[in-house]
Each structure stands twice: as structure tokens, then as C-alpha cells.
Amino acid sequence: MSIRCSQVIQILKKLAPEDLAQDWDNVGLLVGSFSKDIDKVLVTLDVTPQVVDEAVKKNVDLILSHHPVIFKPLKNLRLDNPQNRMLATLLKHDIAVYCAHTNLDVAINGVSDVLAAKIGLSQVEVLQKTAEEKLYKLVVFVPEDHTQKVRDALGDAGAGFIGNYSHCTFRTPGIGTFKPGEGTNPYIGEQAKLSEVKEDRMETIVPENILSRVLHAMVEAHPYEEVAYDLYPVVQNGVSQGLGRIGWLEQETVLAEFVQLLKQQLEISFLKIVGNLEDKVKRIAVCGGSGGSLISTAHKKGAQVFITGEISYHEAQLAKDIGLALIDAGHWATEVPVLSYLQKYLAGELNAAGEKVEIILSKTKTEPFLYL
């Protein structure tokens, strides 16, 4: 059975909320309709004419890409332009395109987290923080016979996460009072009569990006017509999110051996390297895509090696001058590992919701360079 495009997008926003994207970026549903029925999704790094041809042949309904299919404003829709012809093909075959770019770069379990895991880093931290999760304290008053139901609904919707612990709540008993007015249909009590009810005051923590979902789940599980609850902004913030990651190798190794390991893990045969291949290394920073602007940040945070793509001549000189080993593994190679994670994440979330949607990885390699 098909699922609406908007429902697929909500699942993707859980992983990479659109408000995490940089101001200059263009993310979200860039082609198609939120109301489109989706049976098959194609996951790719880029939307190219070859990828679109693949999507047409495979009867794909939605393309999920990392890089935006539309980035600069369109000046015309002339079909002698390859980009415009590609967009026309997408519209002709009713193929929607959703793009998660810099929001997926900074998100937890996004591009750089997957890259860090790929090369075996532990104790991973954000390299350059760009956002912190905003938290709220949710307090709701529940009759005793519905405490467990409401508590479970809040936890299942994502409230109450503290570190690796879920469904964290605190409750205290008390007495609630209310007088149902005309036209009400109270769960407890009678119209025009003051009622006193044993209730539990239940408290939990909710991240801002799932607040609406948690409130909806709470109201659905609560027996009252009018649910009494309070929301308080919390001074401390939640999980840090940002560009790049930094962590530790399990064992110290010389740079030359680490380079060979990296080539195996990323399945590539070509790297550009700055540094002494005999130096021992253990503290490693990564940034999928183009991360040259983070060289100084990586050095200040104690990285001995920084792995990214699209390093310029002058950025390489900077790394050499400050004594930071630098590995340019290419834009494509440092980002493509996230595609398998996206496929598994989306398939898992849809299966858990009982939705039968096929999620496939594109077979089209969009790396534009040949290495000879």
C-alpha cells in the first residue's frame, strides 16, 4: 500500500531536521507534490540525467538525494539546457525529489558520523558546533488509571531521552479539581459540579524538533476532553550538532598504514596526502564533502589527521605549516557512505510503521572525476 510523500518526509526530518541546514542551502521537497503516493524510493548522492533515467526505468516515485537538484535560481525553462531537460523529465514522469544537504551534514548519524564509523573512530564528538538541540520540560496532569498509558505514549513518541536512556519521566501524586461546564462530556465528574480527582503530575524532557509529535501522542492517550499541561523552556541544551567529527582510532598507527586502511574502507585507490607518512597517529578528524575551512578547528581540537575532500593548494599549505596531516579523499568518496545508512534508516522506519515501500540504492556512480 502506498504512503504519502509527506509521510516519508516526516521520517527523514526526524533524522535531519530542515532547520539544521545552512542559510545559503536549498533543502526539502524541491520537485513534486507532498500528496504524491510513494511505493518506491531511490537513494542517491546527486540528481543527474543518468540518475533520472535510472529512476524512470525502475518506476521510482521519489528520489532522495544529498545534493540539491535545484541550487541556483532558474532563469528560464529552455529545454536546450541539460538541467532543465532533466527537470522536465522528472515532472513528465511524476517523480518527486527530496534533498537533505547541510542538514544531513550536521545531523547526528549524518554524513560525518557515518564516515567516522566507517573508519572505526570511537569517542566521537562534533568538530565545529553549529546548533544545539533546544529542550522543553513537559508537565501533564493525568488521572491515576491512565498514568501508564500516557507515560508510554510520551516515551514511544520520543520524549524522555537522557543520553542512552529512553522513557525517562518523574511523577508525583496530587489532587486535581475542575467543574465541567455546559456542553462538556467529562471523563470523570458531572456538569456544573466541582470534582476532585486523584491525579499524577508527570514530567519529562522533549526536544523541540519532535514537540508537536509528542503533544499529539499525549492528547491521543489522555482521557480528558481538555488536557491540562505546561511547557517550560529548559536552560541546558541537548545534543550538539555541527560540521565534522573528531574521535580516536582503537590503536595508534603510523600514517602510512592508516592511509592504506582508509583506502580499503572507502574502496578507493587514490588519495592526496599532506604530512609525514612515518608519524604515529590516533586522534582523527573527519568532514564529509568539502571541509577545508575546518583545518584550523581540527588542529585546535588536537587532531593529528584530518580527512575531507576538495582541499585547495593553500589549504594544504596551511595544514603543512601547522603540522596537521591532511588527507583529501575526495568529495564523493567521503559522502557516499551515508547512502547505505539512509537506505537502512528509511526502510527500518517504514517497516516499523507497517508501510510497504521499496527503498533502493542508485546504481549510477555520480563521481565526475576519473583518476589515471
Describe this structure as you would to a colleague.
31% of the residues lie in helices and 30% in strands. The chain is built from twelve helices and 17 strands. The strands form four sheets. The chain has a six-stranded mixed sheet. A five-stranded mixed sheet has the order 2-6-5-4-17. A four-stranded antiparallel sheet has the order 9-10-8-11, with helices on one face. Strand 14, helix 9 and strand 15 form a beta-alpha-beta unit. The mean pLDDT is 95.
Secondary structure blueprint with pairings:
Elements lengths: L2 E2 H11 L12 E4 L5 E2 L1 E5 L4 H9 L4 E4 L16 H11 L3 E4 L2 H5 L4 H8 L3 E11 L2 E9 L3 H10 L13 E9 L16 E13 L3 H11 L7 E5 L6 E15 H12 L5 E3 L5 E11 L4 H6 L4 E5 L3 H10 L2 E4 L2 H5 L1 H16 L5 E4 L11
Parallel strand pairs: 4-5, 4-17, 5-6, 14-15, 15-16
Antiparallel strand pairs: 1-3, 2-6, 7-12, 8-10, 8-11, 9-10, 12-14, 13-16
